[in-house]
Amino acid sequence: MRFSITKIQEDFPQLKGGSEHYLDSQATSLTPRSVIDAQDAYYLKARANTHRAIFKEAALATDLYEDARTKIANFIGAKREEVILTGGATESSNMLVRMLDETPAFWGSGKREIVTSVMEHHASLVPLQQLAKRKGCMLSHIPLSPGSVRLDVKSVEGLISDETAIVSVMLASNVTGTINPISEIAKVAHRHGAFVVVDATAAIGHIPMHVDDLGADALFFSGHKILGPTGVGVLWVRKEMLEKLQPAVFGGHMISEVTKDDATWGDIPDRFEPGTKNIGGVIGLGAAVDYLNAVGLTEIHRHVSALTKSAIEALDALPGVHVVAERDTELNIGDVSFVCDFAHPHDVAEILGRNGVAVRPGHHCALPYHVELGIAATTRVSFYLYNDEDDVRGLVEAVKKVRALFAD
Question: Looking at the domain covering 36-293, what would its CATH class be?
Fold first, then answer.
């Protein structure tokens, strides 16, 4: 479809009755009517479990579920059998770490180092910390460039070695919006035989991405960040590695054969999807992918970049307001965090909320990043395809009201 902000806004029911300016899409995006309708259709017409029975509704549910898997695979440039459907990015991250942990062959040849970054979301960082403790690995962190919100990519050469087993870096920051040069990092990692993991949660749906172009070996994200339902996510792992990994969660559907004493696993990706999944949520995520493809990720990024630029310039002009964000908006997924000399981020967010501006305060599950930046917390604004310049104006006017309330 041709990018039309008016048409897009009409597609999102919450914009008609919720906060006047919804600027918290990095926490969770709004949901278009087409996604809601796709979920409703499952519950109204195809309510059955998948991959088990052969009656009409069960067959339809399975077809819809697997069609969604194919859409998701195409969205990230992957093979459909490489896509594991999960409960969200946090579950994906933990599952992947456990799968790697429980695959002895992965740890051959003295691989005893893990490299990540100071920018990571806790959902990626904490499972790696626990893995390092269990395996006795050294955990290293790519630092920031001095005085910058960006990673010091030059330091990667000194951090990654032949002993590095895993290199895990997020594609974009959920705090500053910074898009990281993953392909550059992946080239160094692969030169040393390391496994490259990409947390794409903040970036998915904002910029085009292809797993081969990134140089990723594994990638994960949540559906609710890209117009889809909560409680559904994706873990992608390159097929040749996926065939070697051991499952970490067990139950029905994943099994090829079970005896009283042992079990053998089914084919990929079934062996990594035990139990009954969020079927309606997966179908909804497939519809969300359809919607984003129709609008176009390049157009979405162009639109969001323009709003991000406007917001940074407007906030910069306010006395006592300090922007903490990627200022090259082509390299920003749409996040503008800031701090105020005159009020705590939580107070700022509360007053903004009273004035119809929905934002998020805190450290955004990225506490080490805030520590590296030398700040305890920020107020975060995050733009998406349904926002417009009126949202920027609403934000600025609300921040002025905060200043008037607290500055004197």
Answer: alpha beta
Cβ(223)–Cβ(284) below 8 Å: yes
Amino acid at 161: S
Q: How far, CA to CA in Å, does 257 sit from each of 251, 260, 269, 271? A: 12, 10, 16, 12
Question: Which residues fall within 8 angstroms of residue 297, CB to CB, at 6 or more apart?
Answer: 205, 206, 207, 208
117-126 burial string, b = 16+ CB within 10 Å, else e? bbbbbbbbbb
Q: What is the mean pLDDT of residues 180-196?
A: 98
Hey, what CATH class is 5-28+296-406 in? Answer: alpha beta
Pure H helices in 317-363: 345-354
- Choose among 230, 232, 222: nearest CA to 279: 232
d(CA 150, CA 263): 47
CB proximity list for 335: less than 8 A, separation 6 or greater: 26, 173, 174, 175, 176, 177, 202, 308, 325, 326, 380, 381, 382, 383
State the Cα–Cα distance between residues 204 and 218, nearest whole angstrom: 14
List residues with catalytic annotation.
Answer: 365
**Burial letters 368-387, b for 16+ CB under 10 A, else e:** bbbebbebebbbbbbbbbbb
Model confidence band, residue 408 (pLDDT cutoffs 50, 70, 90): low
pTM: 0.96
The 8-class DSSP code of residue 167 comes to: E
Cα-based distances in Å from 95 to 80, 124, 274, 373: 19, 11, 12, 30
Task: Let me know the angle formed at the C-alpha of 338 by 333 and 343, rounded to the nearest 5 degrees.
Answer: 155
Decide if 199 contacts 170 (C-beta within 8 A).
yes
Same fold, 5-28+296-406 and 36-293: no
Mean model confidence pLDDT for the chain: 96
- CA atoms lying within 13 Å on the CB side of residue 61: 24
Contact indicator for 94, 249 with CB cutoff of 8 Å: no
Residue ranges covered by each domain of the chain: 5-28+296-406, 36-293
